[in-house]
Amino acid sequence: MEGGRIRQWLNLLVCALLSLMAEASYVPITYLQNAVAKGAVCLDGSPPAYHFDRGSGTGINNWLVAFEGGGWCNNVTTCLSRKTNRLGSSKQMAKQIAFSGIMSNRPMFNPDFYNWNRIKVRYCDGSSFTGDVEAVNPVTKLHFRGARIFAAVMEDLLAKGMKNARNAIISGCSAGGLTAVLHCDRFQALLPREARVKCVSDAGYFINARDVTGAYHIQQYFSQVVATHGSARNLPQSCTSRLSPKLCFFPQYLVSHITTPIFFVNAAYDSWQIKNILAPGVADPEGHWHSCKLDINNCSPDQLDLMQGFRTEFLRALTVLGNSSYKGMFIDSCYAHCQTEMQETWLRSDSPELEKTTIAKAVADWFYERRTFHKIDCPYPCNPTCHNRVLEPQDNHQGKNVTSKGTSGASARKLNLPKLTNKVQWIELVCINGGINGLLLTLGLMTAINSRHSFIIRFSQSKLELR
Question: Is the pTM of this model over 0.70?
Fold first, then answer.
């Protein structure tokens, strides 16, 4: 009886996981070994890297260069902590990663960009590719060379065909979305004058706002990032000529001077900004915001009021964009962070919409100038198409998360899986169109479901075995 129930649940779980993985393609890593001689290296001195899925057919001369996110390091201590993981060393990066959403190679999931040359630039410098400090401390051996990485990657891609681009986009999520803002005009200047070149920033519109105590914590933090990495000379001169460099890390102070067309995809209640700008740990030492930050459904009326105030501040910071068709926006009222590279939020039957338009269609229509798109959602919880982020307790901006569909009252759907006992020695699972990657992912989730049991999965063409 118990074995039958477990078999039923695990069949459903495995097949669902393999179905989701069918939405993504896996792309191998490329290391830029020749960049090391130019000093274009990660924090630990290892070579920079990217993943490149070549275009085909009508997309062979179209290029999408997406920059990975992952926050920043603002001093030697925080940069050292990244030196031993993928955000500071290419030695620790996965040898292949999934491309989905705007990076997908399947027309049903990405109809306007699926056959472009699609590149994901890995993030290992901690400065949104703006740092450039020549000296390397002999003790820490930290390299602050983000701007050199950007230049080396661009040089390599130009040599591989990007110099002939007819259409091109620089994009990114989170810190990568900020990269797309900071390097937008620089990217356009590298490409043919007759090419259509535009920028797409996903969850990169970080605002200079007070936290719940009234302090400008994020401004101080960005100031430290700029100082640590020597970023000032690599930030847009149109901003640094007018303002302190620490302010030029905030898009609101520089986007009005960006001459290249740019599109912003952002949640007005961006979950990273709520966690780290409105209610950072330093402003909430007793953890009153902890549960709220993990799931917006847990927020008290007072906390929701403060979040509504943050939305007002966010929308005020957007006013500098004006109504120009060059500067598009899709600002939804979801509790989310990064929506263009996740298939469920980019383009699927239940993806978030504004005026019955998905993010994928809004971005593509704007890029190809089929229509302008400049839409701002009504306040939370008005949008039933939202995928609201539900974070794990240990989550940070790079942690795992699930999303729940709907408005207030919606919560993440959890499977009530039966617990395994010692009486169950093995279970046979059968799922059509399986794959080894799906098995590995399933193994990870099985361990999370019940950490007291060890599992061995054996794979054949038509059968999975879990022991």
Answer: yes
